[in-house]
Amino acid sequence: MNRRVAEQQLKPPVSLEPDALDHVSAEQKTRAGGSEGPKGLEHAPEDAAAPALMDDDKKRFRFFVGLVSVVLLVVTLTFGASTSKNDLETVLKGVSGGISPGTQMVSADPQMQARDYSVAIADEGGGPLELSIWDFADEDGDYVQVFVDGQPKTDPFAISHRATKVKVPSKGLIQVKGIRDGKGDGISYAVFFNKTGETYFNVVPLNATNTYTIRTAK
After folding, report:
1. Nearest CA-CA partner of 109 in 186, 16, 8
2. Which of 14, 53, 77, 188 is deepest in the core (most CB within 10 A)?
């Protein structure tokens, strides 16, 4: 026993040189998965997640663009329908109040009969009466001319959505004559009387006249 203990005491200790320590450290790192293992694992999820995040952003952007396009389409269809010119019922009645001069009522010349009217004007000292004449359908190159008691009051002029104003006496015969039919489908027009606030919708054949008999209201 004493001899064996003595031999162990005489045995040199394990070397702790730097090379040996490096060898041990390398083995430990290899067993743990490599020196770059943990670092690589830390960055791998971020690198893999980046394309996914970009794809999600693209999807959100495309969805937003699509949603905006749909909304714009709905708004266009809704407001386009609400502002379409198709008030044919009012036009065919012939006379209406509350129509602003220059208003387009329908998109095409309607099929209607030419009429003559009697217009009652309140006696306000005999001042002039102002007419506003315009094309209440499509602007198609129609021309008319205004006469007072058979005498030309204006030169022939084109009717459009912009009303032409003409001053005439508060009594007498006002005539609107058809001078040119732009499309051959009739000369339709509207005339607004400022003293009554009424608009008359009419159609005049080529080279014919509509007569508005202005009288004093009782």
Report:
1. 186
2. 188
Write the CA distances from 48 to 15, 36, 52, 104, integer angstroms: 46, 18, 7, 63
- 146: exposed, middle or buried (C-beta count within 10 Å: 0-12, 13-18, 19+)? buried
CATH number for the domain formed by residue range(s) 88-216:
2.60.60
Would strands 164-168 and 187-193 be described as parallel, antiparallel, or unpaired? unpaired
Residue carrying structure tokens 């009697």: 118
* Residue 28 bridge partners (DSSP): none
Q: pTM of the predicted model, to two decimals? A: 0.61
- The ranges assigned to domains in the chain are 88-216
**What token pair was written down for 127?**
């001042």
